[in-house]
Specification:
The structure holds two protein chains of two kinds. The relative contact order of chain A is 0.11. Chain A is an alpha+beta fold. Chain A has one domain. Chain A is elongated, with a radius of gyration of 25 Å. In chain A, strands 2-1-3-4-5-6-7 form a seven-stranded antiparallel beta sheet. Chain A has a two-stranded parallel sheet with strand order 8-9. Chain A starts with a helix and ends in an 8-residue tail after the last helix. Chain B is an all-alpha fold. Chain B has one domain. Chain B is 68% helix and 2% strand. Chain B has a two-stranded antiparallel ribbon with strand order 1-2. In chain B, helix 3 packs parallel to helix 6, helix 4 crosses helix 6 and helix 7 packs across helix 9. The mean pLDDT of chain B is 86. The chains are: A alpha+beta, B mainly alpha. The interface between A and B is medium-sized, with 34 and 34 residues.
Chain lengths: 226, 211
């Protein structure tokens, strides 16, 4: 270090220079972030819509087309244009236009953060026929098995959500059981090494199904027109 | 290193790959190194994202090096790094939601990777733009290489696959431990051992040659 550099270090700080540097760079960074956000916004929206679309056709097996419904003042309505508020119901139809399932989103606390899933309900089978994790921050290699573990995903071939006699709640709660001990169609076979994450999925589905299944069953006629 | 020496040479680039490899020699940025390297794909994606942030922030820090007073340099460096991490997060989402899903929370953690702040402070703030870009690229490639080394070994032993392709037969019983955090420490330890052994052997050979 030479004398000039030493002088520079001991020199009294000039507050104008500091303010100028911080504010200037802050402004520049803000501009940079906003520009990137604006430039990528459409692509990201499109990507997310594609992921959702793929998921809908996956959780309602056999669906060829879909229509999005929303609930407005207790009435089921077809979604016109775009809306970001409220729960959306994605009804899936087969070739002949027959309703084969309704997909809806559910979310809840996982091991690390909120887990968002999409699941498909089949009115004929009165069962959940598919589940796809849309967003999760579960531990890579462990908790994220809820997304791809084959044995776990088999749970969602037909997970019973039939209603009780009065039709206001599920006959049997969706419950979590230890890996390999599933005995009833409403039990969720957990994953060894991802216990908390698979328990979370069971809790998320239980909460959402007990809330939505009575409504869906009462209004199922409304979903039948494509 | 002072401003007078602004010659661009290959050593500025090469040193990050091997002699001063950020992971195996400087042992910097251990959080992502241990946390996301449970598969080769995750390791590489994390390495590339870090390299992007490293190169961009080194360039900007170097461009602005005469404009930033010493007293507020750390604050401005962090501001610049955080900006590029946010930019990287949007870009990754635009490129592929699936990659974004796989990296999850770790993208935001690039902000606190001490490798990036370390290069900004030790190199970019004292050197010309060209040299800083070379240095950052070298370090970035070295970091990606190291993460790939760790991720590869852990994926092969932990799940029997490499980049998702089955390479060890079906009869192979995966060592679950290798994809758990503990496996990260074991693998890193083994690589450090190898690097230090090779360094010592080289030093011994050179001594022999001079003697």
């Amino acid at each position: 270090m030479n004398q000039a550099e030493l002088d520079k270090l001991v020199e009294a700080p000039n507050s104008w220079h500091m303010v100028r540097a911080l504010a200037g760079i802050g402004l520049m960074c803000a501009l940079l972030i906003v520009t990137t956000y604006e430039l990528t916004f459409e692509t990201i929206k499109q990507n997310k819509a594609e992921v959702l679309e793929r998921a809908i056709f996956k959780v309602v097996p056999g669906a060829q087309s879909k229509t999005t419904f929303i609930v407005k003042d207790g009435q089921v309505e077809k979604l016109q244009g775009e809306s970001n508020s409220g729960l959306k119901y994605y009804a899936g139809y087969d070739d002949s236009g027959k309703l084969i399932g309704v997909a809806l989103e559910a979310a809840g606390q996982g091991f690390q953060d909120i887990v968002r899933v999409l699941y498909g309900f089949s009115p004929d089978k009165q069962a959940i026929v598919g589940m796809e994790v849309l967003e999760s921050k579960e531990t890579p290699g462990l908790g994220d098995k809820i997304e791809k573990d084959e044995t776990f995903l088999k749970n969602f071939e037909a997970l019973d959500v039939s209603l009780n006699e009065s039709g206001d709640n599920l006959k049997n709660e969706i419950i979590f059981v230890k890996n390999g001990t599933k005995a009833n169609p409403w039990e969720l076979d957990g994953i060894t090494g991802a216990t908390i994450s698979s328990k979370a999925i069971a809790a998320i589905l239980q909460a959402s199904a007990s809330q939505n299944m009575p409504f869906l069953n009462q209004n199922i006629e409304n979903f039948k027109q494509q | 290193m002072n401003e007078a020496n602004n010659k661009l040479d290959t050593n500025t680039f090469i040193k990050g790959l091997w002699k001063e490899n950020p992971v195996f020699v400087q042992v910097l940025g251990m959080c992502p190194v241990l946390a996301v390297t449970n598969s080769a794909t995750n390791g590489m994606a994390m390495g590339l994202a870090t390299a992007f942030v490293l190169i961009m922030s080194s360039t900007l820090v170097s461009l602005l090096r005469n404009f930033i007073p010493k007293q507020v340099r750390i604050a401005t460096f962090i501001l610049i790094i955080a900006t590029f991490v946010t930019v990287a997060e949007y870009l990754i989402q635009a490129i592929s939601i699936d990659i974004h899903k796989a990296l999850g929370a770790f993208i935001s953690l690039i902000v606190v990777n001490c490798l990036i702040l370390g290069r900004a402070e030790a190199f970019a703030s004292k050197n010309s733009v060209g040299k800083s870009i070379l240095d950052a690229t070298g370090m970035g490639v070295g970091f990606t290489f190291a993460l790939l080394c760790l991720g590869g070994v852990r994926e092969i032993l932990g799940t029997g696959t490499f980049f998702g392709i089955q390479i060890l037969g079906a009869s192979f019983e995966p060592w679950i431990l290798m994809i758990l955090p503990g496996g990260g420490f074991f693998t890193l330890g083994a690589w450090l051992l190898l690097f230090n052994y090779m360094k010592e052997r080289k030093a011994a050979k050179m001594q022999e040659a001079t003697a």
